[in-house]
């Protein structure tokens, strides 16, 4: 890993652990093992380095999400797999936690990659939900945008609850609840189709 990549990795980890405001360039240099001259060769300052770290975090998040949601096969099974995948709930989401950092949330440049990552995930979820509706797995009265937002809010809210409790159980329960709700809605769609025949 070259010095630029080490700086971005260190900034990424520190922002995840402490937030943007609480992360100093000195701490980034110490964690990365990169000297001050090299740091400022690659980045004009902390803001530019933070942007690179946020872009990296978002880029790391999306491939696994897209692989699950954009794959072929049963759409409800893909949503279930998305809601079931491994996480580190007590650390929070590398991307979602940045929305709670006041300096990131108030900076349109730093917030842009976070907003775009969530928009991409939302689009993928909406697409899979529409597939499920088209196949009759979900009722056509459901709003795909609303359901996609609920799924994302469940995951992100689960992180908050787990961190507050210092226990992963609320995160797991929130996701399990969303999965059970989707299965119940799918069962209703099947029953409605049978009654219409």
Automatic annotation (TrEMBL):
Is Transcription one of the keywords UniProt gives this record? yes
Q: Which UniProt keywords apply?
A: DNA-binding, Transcription, Transcription regulation
Question: Which regions of the protein are recorded as binding DNA?
Answer: 24-43
Q: Which Pfam families match?
A: TetR_C_13 (PF16925), TetR_N (PF00440)
Looking up Gene3D superfamilies in the UniProt record yields: Tetracycline Repressor, domain 2
Q: Which InterPro entries match?
A: Homeodomain-like_sf, HTH_TetR, Tet_transcr_reg_TetR-rel_C_sf, TetR_C
Entries under PROSITE patterns matching the protein: HTH_TETR_2
**Residue span(s) of domain HTH tetR-type:** 1-61
In the record, what terms sit under GO molecular function? DNA binding
Superkingdom is Bacteria
Membrane in keyword set: no
What PANTHER family does this protein map onto? HTH-TYPE TRANSCRIPTIONAL REGULATOR LMRA, TRANSCRIPTIONAL REGULATORY PROTEIN
What is the recorded name of this protein? TetR family transcriptional regulator
Which species?
A: Propionicimonas paludicola
Lineage here is: Bacteria, Bacillati, Actinomycetota, Actinomycetes, Propionibacteriales
């Amino acid at each position: 890993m070259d010095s630029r990549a080490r700086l971005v990795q260190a900034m990424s980890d520190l922002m995840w652990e402490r937030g943007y405001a609480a992360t100093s360039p000195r701490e980034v240099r110490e964690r990365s093992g990169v000297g001050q001259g090299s740091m400022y060769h690659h980045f004009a300052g902390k803001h530019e380095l933070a942007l690179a770290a946020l872009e990296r975090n978002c880029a790391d998040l999306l491939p696994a999400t897209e692989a699950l949601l954009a794959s072929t096969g049963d759409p409800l099974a893909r949503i279930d797999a998305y809601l079931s995948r491994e996480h580190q709930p007590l650390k929070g989401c590398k991307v979602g936690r940045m929305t709670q950092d006041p300096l990131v949330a108030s900076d349109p440049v730093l917030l842009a990659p976070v907003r775009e990552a969530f928009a991409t995930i939302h689009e993928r979820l909406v697409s899979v939900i529409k597939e499920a509706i088209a196949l009759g797995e979900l009722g056509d009265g459901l709003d795909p945008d609303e359901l996609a937002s609920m799924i994302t809010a469940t995951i992100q809210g689960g992180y908050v609850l787990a961190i507050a409790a210092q226990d992963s159980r609320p995160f797991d329960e929130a996701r399990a609840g969303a999965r059970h709700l989707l299965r119940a809605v799918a069962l209703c769609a099947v029953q409605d189709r049978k009654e219409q025949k």
